[in-house]
Each structure stands twice: as structure tokens, then as C-alpha cells.
Amino acid sequence: xxxxxxxxxxxxxxxxxxxxxxxxxxxxxxxxxxxxxxxxxxxxxxxxxxxxxxxxxxxxxxxxxxxxxxxxxxxxxxxxxxxxxxxxxxxxxxxxxxxxxxxxxxxxxxxxxxxxxxxxxxxxxxxxxxxxxxxxxxxxxxxxxxxxxxxxxxxxxxxxxxxxxxxxxxxxxxxxxxxxxxxxxxxxxxxxxxxxxxxxxxxxxxxxxxxxxxxxxxxxxxxxxxxxxxxxxxxxxxxxxxxxxxxxxxxxxxxxxxxxxxxxxxxxxxxxxxxxxxxxxxxxxxxxxxxxxxxxxxxxxxxxxxxxxxxxxxxxxxxxxxxxxxxxxxxxxxxxxxxxxxxxxxxxxxxxxxxxxxxxxxxxxxxxxxxxxxxxxxxxxxxxxxxxxxxxxxxxxxxxxxxxxxxxxxxxxxxxx
Amino acid sequence: xxxxxxxxxxxxxxxxxxxxxxxxxxxxxxxxxxxxxxxxxxxxxxxxxxxxxxxxxxxxxxxxxxxxxxxxxxxxxxxxxxxxxxxxxxxxxxxxxxxxxxxxxxxxxxxxxxxxxxxxxxxxxxxxxxxxxxxxxxxxxxxxxxxxxxxxxxxxxxxxxxxxxxxxxxxxxxxxxxxxxxxxxxxxxxxxxxxxxxxxxxxxxxxxxxxxxxxxxxxxxxxxxxxxxxxxxxxxxxxxxxxxxxxxxxxxxxxxxxxxxxxxxxxxxxxxxxxxxxxxxxxxxxxxxxxxxxxxxxxxxxxxxxxxxxxxxxxxxxxxxxxxxxxxxxxxxxxxxxxxxxxxxxxxxxxxxxxxxxxxxxxxxxxxxxxxxxxxxxxxxxxxxxxxxxxxxxxxxxxxxxxxxxxxxxxxxxxxx
Lengths: 417, 417
Known about the structure:
The structure is a homodimer.
Chain A: E1 5-10, H1 14-24, E2 31-37, E3 52-53, H2 57-60, E4 67-70, H3 75-87, E5 91-94, H4 97-102, H5 104-114, E6 118-119, H6 130-137, E7 143-149, H7 152-163, H8 168-177, H9 186-189, H10 192-206, E8 216-217, H11 225-233, E9 237-247, E10 251-261, E11 274-281, E12 285-292, H12 296-311, H13 319-322, E13 328-329, E14 333-341, H14 344-349, E15 352-360, E16 365-372, H15 373-378, H16 380-385, E17 389-399, H17 405-416
Parallel strand pairs in A: 1-2, 1-4, 2-3, 4-5, 5-6, 8-10, 10-13
Antiparallel strand pairs in A: 7-9, 7-11, 9-10, 11-12, 14-16, 14-17, 15-16
Helix pairs in contact in A: 1-12, 6-10, 7-8
């Protein structure tokens, strides 16, 4: 039988309180939160003052505590806490995707070196058990692609702007009121949050350790009603979707960007704060998982599930990483995108390899075509600054195909005409 | 690191060949099939004759073999093989839902007694890792309901008859040609197969060991075009869905029956041979998982996933059963159904507690209302024999509410008028 764990909790915000509630209202699993470390000394809290501490070492140095649960916002302070806990031989559960993505390699090595377990199911996919499923169920299968909707906040905003025709500002405000979006929504709306999650998932799906700064994240801040109109006319919805795809020669391409999604795609009906993940396996075909991507209880339940797994001695084995699956991350790949631009300067700056559609309407101009992912990454700031908008038109990343010079010239002519 | 397993395989049909192919074409995981036991001595096979045996003891008594993989059709012979293997201290992987459902208690005890592992992810939900997810991820959470589409064959037939207006006979023939349906499709079309799966899932979701014969299974053999027309007019699709639901007082209700599914339900878009499972948790909310429910490679991949888990020492802990979750199975519950009948005799035989809709059109008569599940179970043969059709109108099972005698009498009047 599993032993009853003693938990030291860092952070008592939305998820921390959710965990506290779920733990105290679960019939199946019992564990005690023996201490909660928080920052703000003035805040009123719903738990006994005896439980609260402002000194992290009251938890880190307490030999009675088996498990550290880290649920604070600050990624760097979180890393200090988590790495110190691991070094002290304590198991850790965290939901901090930013910390994980930035320090993935160090955290992987700290686990091995100190023979401890670090679990983080709640960091990606909300209540969807995606990491566990990749680690334990698809460990023996070569995966082709993992894609999906990993951010409840932007999905909520996109649902409201596209289905209900709310303005971006109103939709964002609603998301904030519902507790899905933070006061500073940059992490979500610029696609950092889903990128951190994509980086974590890339490790469990393909064995890849990549730095977040190597991965392109385009968000929805420059979305214009013309883009929504374009998508609607073609019966597309716009979703912010990370794509992690295996390519020939053990290469893997990763990006996060808005995408036009057709009705036939599973993600089309993933609405509001829900998340959805599509896992494409060589043999098992297409798997789809959907669940709540935000909220106090769903995330609290995901954290508790990790705590329960710890009580049974569970640790990630990082099987794909150990097996050295597809280990060559590359941005030298081609993606198919819709690109709304302002002037020819933009088109000369962001050079397309191939153009299949072109529209020039004065105030509203776009092209659809193939572009190198590295080109987009190099020009990310330019795109944001000039309020240009990029959306994938499908979820396929491909290796660059060399084209005849003549074709390229012909396309340049097309652009300049 | 995991050790390389030596596998003794029973059966080399659709799934056995799928496993053989998937195993030999996986890069991540290596295991050897050292012997394959088959029945038919005359059949030509795609593997070396040295691998084949007609004597089960060549596998069962081979000390070199670590894992028995049982993939034969015959449930009783499968039970003989599996129970003998477990007694000999060998781990077993099986996909045989009928055997599992019938012998669940014995197989549970054999594992404990002999300290061996029996895994069967491929037995339910096709390539969806539902058992593992329930066992490892929702072990600490109180679940409210598990429902879904667990049978690829009937879902294929229903998709073709409802969306493409094919006749039942033509759709069944197509399913057989595609290898989804067997020559004798009774197990699928009468709902036995999804019932066996529901029985297995009830153990991992609620800790319940129930006998298949205690559970109602209504199938799609009596589906008439009038039923399809009724559903279509209301924008419903008809799906064959098991429902396993927690009720007050630790009770659980289980049944398998056709159901009218609205567009807002996740199962609406689960088409053809796909399976879908909805897991409703107290805290995590609604989870949805979809994947291929039939086919040689997807099922082979699910079996391989179990073999891989075995190589890491995995065994089910039956946590909900050990925790004695909701342990009172009951058929004394109310379900809301559409009931197409022929004559008043049918209505007097199958007595409804409440009627909300009534149509009498000579050749086509139906009522919609509440009926006791036990009443339906008692009259299952009568329903089939008289080609009556029952469809759930929602997925909610409720405990019986006592009604005033007057109301009952009024309804009896309504029926007889």
C-alpha cells in the first residue's frame, strides 16, 4: 500500500487553493499539507495561520516533509526552490511550465543525480494526462506528430472573437474576469505559455531537449477582423496551436502559431478554456484527448494525480530521451502560412519560397504560401511591431525542397506586380 | 534499463499479425516473439514454420518465455491458457474482453496470489489508453461517469446507416469486408462486446466487479428506418454507448444501449471505426479521449504498449477496488428512453414509470419516458424477439423516485387511450 505523504506547498494562489480543496475533498487518496510557504504577508487566507510560513527553509529543511509541491508564479524563484529540494533528496511536483521549459536539461540531470522524482503533469494540457500518456503508453511507439491547443486563455479569447464576434479587448477582459487570463496576459496571448508546454511535450514525445528561445512563438495579439473574416469565409476557425513534428533523418520541427482549422479537424470543436491534444502514432493512428485547460479544480486535480503517483514511487523515465529518438531539432523547415502584410517592404523582409494565393486590397493585403520557419523566427519582432499577422494554413511542417531559380524569380515578379 | 522480453504468443489472427508487424517495425522497444501457438494446422502463415507450434505447452512450459500474449478468439480456451500461465508465474498480456469480463474476479485473485501482472489495455477502447488512464491518473479522483463508444463495428454501421443512408445489411457487409466485423457479428451488433468492455472499465473506474449477465445490453439489430428518421428530425445521431454512472449511496448503474446523441456531445463526431470515451471527474471535469477502435496495427500497438509496460515491471493496482469506492452495483435505476413498440401488449409488458411523449401512427408507435432498468433487463429477449427498439434519450441514470399512485394511474390512462 501507498504511504501517506506529507506535503510542503509553495504558493497558495488559484492552483494551490484548488489543490488544497481537491485534496481535502477526495475520498480515495489521503495526504497532508503540513506547511504552505507564501510571499505576501498581508493577504488574508482561508487556511489556519499555523500552516503558513514566509520562510522557504521551514519547508525545505523539514525532514518530515516527503514531497514539495511548487505552485508559485515566479519561474526563477521556483527553479531555486525546486532545484534545492531535488538536491536535498525530496520529490517535487510542479505546474510551472516556464521554469520547466527554461531549465529542462538541468532538472532532468538533477533527478538522475539525486535519484528523486520530479512530476509535472499539470504543467501541460491542463487536466489532460498528456505527459503520462506519452511517457507510459506511447513510449514504445514512434510518433509522427503532436499538435493541439495547449492554452486555455487564448482559446477562450479566440472562441469569443470568432464564434461570438466579440472584440479582442472585450474577450480578453472576460477571460481575465473568469480567472483564465492574468493581469499581464503577454505569456498567453503572445504564445509563450503554449511554447513552454510544447518544449516539455517535445521531450516526452520525441526525447528532445530544446531551449524555448529556439522555438518560434507567434501569438494572437495582431489578429485583425480581416483575418477573422478571411477564415470565416472559408469555414475555418483560428486556433493557437503548437505543432511538434517528426521529419525525415530524425529531425523534429517545433513551432507555436495561430492556425486555420477546418471542421474535419478535432481541434475545431475544442472551445473556450478547453485544451485538446492530437497524438499521431506510426501504428496506433490518430489519438485525440480533450479536457479543461484552466481552472482551479482541474489543475489542482492534475497536481494531486502527480502526488498520488509519487506515493506509488512513480518517476518519469524519459524513455524517448534515453532511447535517443529523433534528436535533431531544426528550424530549417517549410511551413504553409497565410501572411497579412502592410506593404511591399514587409514582403521583401519576409521572403516566401512559394506563393499560392495573393490578395491586394489597399488596406488589406495577404499572401498564402510557403516560408522557411527560420525566416519567421528571425523576423518575429518585426511582425509584432508592424502588427502583421501569420497563421498556419495546415499543421504540416516539411523539410526544405530546393527550387529552381527560375521559379523563385517568377514568384518575385508576382510579388512585385 | 528494461530487459529484453521473450514472448510466447497465442493466436496469429488480425491482432496477432498486427503485433508481429508493429514489434518488428518499432525503433524504440525490442522484444522477441519466440513461439506462436495456433490451432489451424492447414493455414499458410507469413512467419517461419519454426516459430509455429500447435501445442500450448510448448509455450506454457518454456522457462525461457517471460510473457504470454494471448490473442485467440475462444474465451474459454483463452481463460485456460491465461490462468495456467498466471499460476506458472508468467506475466500475461491479453486483448480478450469476453474472457476478462466473465472471469474478472478469478483473474484479479490469480494475479495477487501468484504475484504476477495481467495487462489488457487493448481489450477496451482500442488504441485509447483508457484503462491505464483510469488506473494511474484518475486513481485519486472520485469519478462521476464514464461513457462512450466502445465498439468500432457498430459505430461503423451506425455511421453508414445514419450519415450515408445505407441499409443496415449493406453497412454490416461493408464492415465485414473491412475486417471490422466478424462473420458472426452477434457480439458486436447485440452489444455484448461493448458490455464486456464496460464491465472491465467499471472495475478500473469505480472498483466494481460485476458479472456481465447482470448488465443490460441492447444492440442495434432492431433499429428501423423510422427510428433513424425520428433521430434525424431532431438532429440526433444514434450511437451505441455504454454508460457507467455513480449514484448516491455509493451505488453504480451500468448499461449498454443505443442512445440519441446531440451535436454538442463529444460522441457526436466519433465516426466510423473510431472509439471515444468521456470520463467525468468530480474535480477535473469532463475528459474526452478518442482513437481507433479496431484494426490490426492500432490494436497491435496497444498490445505492444502493455508488453513494454511489463518490461518496466508495471502491474495494475486496482486502486479503486482496493479503496472500495462505489461498490454497490444496481439495476434498480431509472433511465430515459425512446421506445418504439408494436402494440399495447408491448406497453403493458414493459411498464413505464413516466411518459413525456407519445406517438401512435399505426405502423409506427413510440413513447418517450422513464423506465426502470431492471424492467428492460427482464424483457430483453422480448424486445429482441418482437423487433422493438429502445434508445436512451440522454446519458443520465438516476435512482428511482417514488411517485404518487395518482400520477401512475393517469399515465396508464394515457397509454391506454
